[in-house]
Amino acid sequence: MQINQDPQVELKFQSYPKGVSEKLRSLRKLILETALEIGSIKAVEETLKWGEPSYLVKKGTTIRIDWKPRAPQQYGMYFSCQTSLIPTFKVLYGGLFKYEKDRALLFDLNEDLPLKEVKECIALALQYHLVKNLPLLGK
Asked: What is the pTM assigned to this prediction?
């Protein structure tokens, strides 16, 4: 799998506080691992959108990751609010995640991620245009 990296993304990771940067790099790793596991994904574009590290693939919707100083103890994975991703995650996973309306999964800096479920969310986003018409996105 090819990763098309914008060098500005690394500078953005370096700009975060140390503990935050580590958490966001872990999310990045999960996104790239999941894309590789899907198999049909040949390339991932890593770029900045709205100043946030963002990941795009053909047939998927953009995944953005970020930390915001206004909520210093959490970080998030953001999706287009025009998708049915977050409403579907709410049905599938209920209270497992904290949600920001229909646009984000929020994670506490001091808690471990539920890796299996986060990877399932990433996989649905990376294949969104293939599954968006299926009940519960095919899950």
From this structure: 0.95
Examine residue 124 and state whether it is found in any structural domain, yes or no.
yes
CATH number at residue 71: 3.90.1150
Distance CA 105, CA 51 (A): 18
Number of domains in the chain: 1
Report CA torsion sign: 40, 28, 61, 117.
Answer: positive
Q: Which domain holds residue 83?
A: 2-128
Number of CB atoms found within 10 A of residue 39's CB:
8
Distance (Å) of CA 80 to CA 61, 88, 97, 125: 7, 13, 17, 10
Helical packing angle, 18-38 and 115-126, nearest 10°: 60
Task: Encode pLDDT of 94-111 as tens digits.
Answer: 999 999 999 999 999 999
CA distance 22 to 96: 22
